[in-house]
């Protein structure tokens, strides 16, 4: 049996999966950096959410800055990924960008 066609299909499948994962990760990073994402402040501005308040803490408007840098309800994720309970935007941008995507994913707010 010739294994080359099977290997080619497997490689094409792996490429497609990795390509899709990379696209999704980059999409989340751009959305979080630009604040044009499915967080309540942006959705409220578009008329697609009844209120801009944070779903996790309810104390501030749900923006990318609030979620990544200061929301007290998800401090544990921030500490685990960034090593600090509070962050400045400059500190977030100094870290590898994949952390933004992982952070957003773990909060469940962009699902």
Would you kindly provide a brief summary of this structure?
The protein has 111 residues and is an all-alpha fold. Helix content is 61%, strand content 0%.
What does the average pLDDT come to?
85
Q: How much helix, percentage-wise, in residues?
A: 55-70%
Low-confidence stretches: none
Q: Which series of helices and strands comes N to C?
A: HHHHHH
Q: Which band does the percent of strand residues land in?
A: under 5%
Query: Any idea what the radius of gyration is?
Result: 18 Å
**Ends apart, CA distance between termini:** 44 Å
Largest sheet: number of strands, sense, barrel closure:
none
Shape: globular
Characterization of the model:
This protein has 111 residues and is mainly alpha-helical. It has one domain (4-107). 61% of the residues lie in helices and 0% in strands. Helix 1 (4-34) packs across helix 6 (98-107). The longest helix has 31 residues, at 4-34. The protein is globular. The model has no long low-confidence stretch (mean pLDDT 85).
Task: Write the SSE topology.
Elements: H1 4-34, H2 40-45, H3 64-70, H4 75-82, H5 89-94, H6 98-107
Helix pairs in contact: 1-6, 4-6
Keyphrases for this structure?
6 helices; mainly alpha; 111 residues
